[in-house]
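Q: My labmate handed me this sequence with no annotations at all. I'd like to see what the chain might look like in three dimensions before we decide whether it's worth expressing. Could you predict it?
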Amino acid sequence: MARSARRPGRQAQVTGLFVSLLQACASVGPPPGGPPDKAPPKIVSVKPDSGAIVPNFKDDVVIQFDDVIDEMAGGGGGGGGRGGGGVAGLERQVLLSPVHGDVKVSWHRTKVTVKPKEGWKRRVYRLEILPGFVDLRRNRLDSAKTVLFSTGPEIGHARIGGIALKWIEQTILARALIEAVPLPDSAGYLTMADSGGQFNLTNLQPGRYIVYATADENGDRRRGVREAYDSTEVTLDSSSNVALFTFPHDTVPPRPRAATSLDSTTVRVEFTQALDPTASFDTAHVHVLELPDSTPVATTQVLTQRQYDSLTNAARAKADSTKPVVHDTTPHKLPPQAARGPAGGGGGAPRSPAKAPVDTTLVRQLLARRPVPSDKIVVRLVRPMKPEARYVVRVAGATNLIGKKGDGLIGFAMPKPVVSDTTHHAPRTGRP
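A: Here is what I predict for the chain of 432 residues:
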């Protein structure tokens, strides 16, 4: 069979294509790309819109961004349940409430979708989009956005605000998990306190609420049995402010765990947890026994650690006030820079202006409303204890912060007395 001849037109087309490609590769032009993109991703829209009423809503909430979002943003993969650890991945970046159970958060490049695993109920929903979404260039969105929509009920106009505090530590609780549960329901509206412990929940319906503040240490957005929290009931009309004093709700009674002699007539006892500062705790609850015969040693006073420190500081200040004041008349040379003074009116490098102090007046006033809990007491004795003798402290009725009472024994030993060396030594002459 004869071979068919090649068509010259097709050969010319192929040759021309290669020539065009070579010319394109050899052409000199501006490099691809441009200045590095440092702009954070922006939220273009959220569906449903904030304020929308969408009866029989079945779809996902859609958060649309102007750029591709990093699926691993927030420290893990997107979606999934809480599991044994904290919330991870994209799920960390949203708070959907009120819901029972987990929330499914899914990644779709420039979109993130949100839906409760229990499905949508007839409620007013609050979706808080938290700071922390990042794009593929690691640009971070630092602003937050709140969207409220309803699947039937009217959206309210009341608010609950306030501050979360650490009662024992006497400070603010930053980033506290806040939950306002409308009674008689058991699912509440969630938000996070800011770095100053303050929070604000808006667009609530009037009614009765239990408001919780929790130190969400494991990040699972639930009140853990070992996590410090506090709660208060609020009858909400239009607006209410609350202060929440978080503390561990330990159901195990307190026990003494250590005892130390501060001096010959004073013993400090430490407990396994903080004690109720309002509970009666005096010499009838604390007994000191000398071993080995368990001989009672009379006690004269039982103080909290704070009371003991206050008395000790007052006594020290009184003693210092009676000492004669000695004025230092030794001449001191100024450093060369200070001696020369500012050169040319400038005087060296300019100092940066001092930062204005943070106003903590409100925090101090709120914390002053309650006595400070402590895990220590100080026992004062009628007579001195003996050096190198052993003693036992017996405690009855120690009460923790939720009213659990515990008893216990703890032993300690008095130290050996220090003997000062009063021997006179002749000065050494350097001779053998």
